[in-house]
Structures are given as structure tokens and as C-alpha cells.
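Appendix C reproduces, verbatim, an entry submitted by the partner laboratory led by Prof. M.T., so that reviewers can inspect both the input and the predicted structure.
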Amino acid sequence: MTELERKLGYTFHDPSLLEEALTHSSFSAHGKNNERLEFLGDSVLSIIVAEYLYARYPDLPEGELTRLRAALVCEQALFRFSGKIELGRYLRLGKGEELTGGRERPSMVADAFEALLAAIYLDGGMEPARAHVLRFIPKHLEPDGLRVLGDYKTALQELVQKNKEETVEYVVVDESGPDHNKVFCVEVRLNSNVIGRGTGRSKKQAEQNAAGEALSLMGYETR
């Protein structure tokens, strides 16, 4: 935990909050886990990002701000943010989750990111919580770049919808590995033509990665 605090640049006054934020429900059937902190962290994250976007882009309408916020707080974006501090390494998991790759599962790590944010908020207030979130937001991206920061499928769908005759579909073309640790390969197709391919430990993650590759090939910056 001391090592993680160094990466965060924040030292907890109440270390039990950090411990709780890192504890998945599978770790203990009776002790505290990070689900309640995750609930709070989701709201704290939303207000910090909304406030940032409101001040940073004074001319954008509400609909655009909403899409930008969604891109910055989606599961894939939080998973990438978490990777910068290797958050998955520090999670307290039950044996089953440990064996099935829980430390690398986007949904689990993203939830822990929100729980960690809530822990910082409760321990030190809004300022350190805000500083923690803003360190991950790329400040050089334009709004179109921010939009494809995390939710690649939504961004690709928005682009395709500009032409009503275009259709996008995701097709699983390969599965490998044992049932508890499968790897999926997905192609994203535009009018039956392959425009991207991605792999992941879930179909959802593979689809996101395929959409991300398609956006990159179309000239959009993805992070």
C-alpha cells in the first residue's frame, strides 16, 4: 500500500479506507469490500469530469459535453487510467478471481478505480480527489479526440450514423483458451467489409478493441 501511495502522490490519514478500496467482494464473505466506495466514487468522478469539461470547453453545447464525459468515465477509459498506476496489482481478490485473471479484468479494475477515488475523497476532501482524476485526462486532445478516449463502439457508431445506409456489425472469428480464461478475437465490419480487429478476455473488450483499431485506421486518435 505504501508503494501505491507513492504512485498516487497521496498518503492516507486513514489507511483502512485504502484497504477497503482495494478489497473485492470475493476476498472475504464477511469483511468490508469496495462496493459502497465504488458507488460513491462514481458520483465523485462524474462531478469532477463534468466540472473540468464545463470550464475547459465553454462553447460546447450540453449534448457534446455529455458525450465527452461519457467517454472519460466509461469502463475502458478507467481501465486505461488504472494501468498508469498498475492498480490491478494491488487488488485484494479471492482465489477464484485471482485464478481467472481478475487483476486484468476491465470491469473489476475500473470499479476499483472509482472506489479508490471515493477513498481519497473521504480521506482528504475534493481537492486531492480532483487532482487524482485530472492527472489522467489528456489535456492536449480536442473534443473529437476526447470522444474516442474510451468508448470506441459508441464513437464508431456515431460516425457511421451520419450515413444511414451504412451498417456496422461485430463478429467473433476466434476463441482460444480454457473456459475460465478465454481469449476472443472479433472483427468489426462495415457493410460486410472488415475495418478493424481486436482481441480481449471478453467479447465486450474484444469489440471495443476492434472498434478502436477501426477508428485509428480512420485517422482518429484513440487513447
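The chain has a mean pLDDT of 87. Additional entries are available on request from the coordinating office.
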